[in-house]
Design brief:
7 helices; two-stranded antiparallel ribbon; cell membrane; transport; mainly alpha
Length: about 220
């Protein structure tokens, strides 16, 4: 849970930076911009939040994961409040970086709203999808639960975040928006696939070591 919350906080700070790969190239297919590739500064870290969410959901169930999501939501609100206070505190005469500090950590309410809503909806859908699939598959086909929940949760998260935050990080056209949305979704899903062997090992270890773990037979969203 500590790593889960830390990942969310760090990702929300890094996401305020727009990132572009192959900036000197230009390639479009119809309304889709292929190059340059636009994303945000959290692209390399944020998928870990969904990997951790899958581990929590698989081992501890929806109710425990929902509690972790609430704690993470509260931590993000605390981060926003602290950043806002720090930005508005009077700068010392010897401190020369107030504007840079404000630019990096100043609260953009659109970005905050995008991060909070995307995280909240996406993580809940990710967890609910995993435990509902598990109700049918029991202890078999873990890969189906991991991939299925990630596709649903990541798509909802990415769509909500991109729709609200795109303008804040400099995305101005529909081509750029679609590129940002599709690249973000595909990248996060690809990360899930790449780290799945590690996820399998972590889940197996926790199931073996966690004395409270037992397969749930019914009512997966409430047990």
């Amino acid at each position: 849970m500590a790593l889960f919350t830390a990942t969310l906080i760090i990702s929300n700070v890094c996401a305020s930076k727009g990132v572009e790969f192959f900036g000197g190239a230009s390639l479009s297919v119809g309304p889709f911009q292929i190059l340059p590739i636009g994303t945000d500064g959290a692209f390399f870290l944020f998928p870990l939040a969904y990997v951790l969410g899958d581990v929590l959901s698989e081992v501890y169930g929806f109710r425990a994961t929902r509690r972790a999501i609430y704690y993470g939501f509260g931590a993000l609100l605390l981060m926003v409040a602290c950043f806002s206070i720090a930005v508005h505190l009077p700068a010392a005469g010897f401190y020369e970086h107030q504007e840079a500090f404000r630019t990096v950590l100043g609260v953009s309410w659109r970005l905050v709203l995008a991060g909070l809503l995307g995280y909240f909806v996406g993580q809940l859908l990710n967890s609910a999808t995993l435990v509902l699939i598990k109700e049918r598959t029991k202890e078999k086909h873990l890969w189906a639960r991991l991939i299925g929940s990630t596709v649903v949760g990541e798509f909802a998260d990415t769509l909500i975040f991109c729709s609200i935050a795109a303008g804040v990080i400099g995305i101005e056209t529909w081509q750029q928006f679609l590129n940002y949305l599709i690249v973000g979704f595909l990248w996060k899903t690809l990360v899930e696939l790449l780290v799945m062997p590690i996820t399998y090992q972590v889940i197996a270890l926790l199931k073996k070591k966690e004395p409270t773990y037992a397969p749930k037979e019914s009512d997966p969203l409430h047990v």
